[in-house]
Amino acid sequence: MSRPRADIHLGALVANWRRLAALAPASETGAVVKADAYGHGLAEAGRALAGAGCRHFFVAYPHEGVALRAAVGAGPQVHVFHGTASGDDTEGLAAMVEHGLTPVLNDLAGLALWLGAAPARPYGLHIDTGMNRLGLRPDEVGEAVNLTAERPPALVMSHYACADAPDDPMNARQAETFARLAAAFPQARPSLCNTAGLFLGGQMAGAVNRPGIGLYGGGTSPLQPELEAALTLTAPVLTVKTVPAGESVGYGATARLGREATLATVALGYGDGFPRSLGNRGFGVIAGTEVPIVGRVSMDLITLDVSAAKTFAKPGARVEFIGAAARLERQAALAGTLGYELTTRLGPRVERRFHP
Ligand SMILES: *Cc1c(COP(=O)(O)O)cnc(C)c1O
Description:
Bound molecules: pyridoxal-5'-phosphate
Radius of gyration: 23 Å
Distance between the termini: 25 Å
Strand content: 15-25%
């Protein structure tokens, strides 16, 4: 039985990684593979990138790091953004020690906990330069320097708030603050740039970059070069029918046909993680022709007006909803969101197929 499918193009992923790495030749480019590599498959994406020479991976949780370690072996460094929390996270801490993961420590209590529990193990330190999310406040850096005098961090990082808006003055302010505070840890490698940050230029020498979305072909920076779609989401046509003008389509009868139309009902819905907000807004592509979603997206089904592609819209034909033709960020914008959310939400009912 045919069902929604995400074809994962590992070659495109690697090509995007190389492309981004080439933009920052004085620094080293890692890969952010949290949330199952943004929905692309953590183990497969990790292995493909490690095989291409990627030596720094970033995940959010210890358990993601454990799974990645099993996939990529002992060589690459696996950094865990949520690091060691000051709460009672002994399980995560033990997993990081056992599997050789590098926590990013986000506050003084977490730092003290790691230094006490895992002597002589490498770690990173996150400094908040204005996002007010994770990381030490600038006025806590002095105390962190004292605490870490014997065992300095291997990596010191911060995160841009507005990197996809290159003209925002906050970018330069954060970069300056970070350069000043990171200098307190001369043994540590600095790490600031996510995907959009890479396009701002001015990487610090010896830095480790942290692109995520660009690896997968997404991103909204106006400075971004064309990147390859690493995922193609398709779904099969179940039925096709011709419906006269004046009739309605789907729950709530939110679409009314202004003329006779050929409608294709496709096996994909919000139960697969495809956003309900794309009802009457999103589109599919069949044999190169864009066809609009008509009516609401339901749990398992979408209806398309395929009047413009009648000869191709037959039961069993596959319609693309994300990919080289149905660009991720365009579909995401129609849904009122970003590519990040579209790919990370694709659910377990979507079959994954991996291609070299
Ligand atoms: C997710 C994440 C990244 C990757 O950002 P992209 O915009 O996907 O390139 C980098 N750094 C941190 C701290 C993150 O949480």
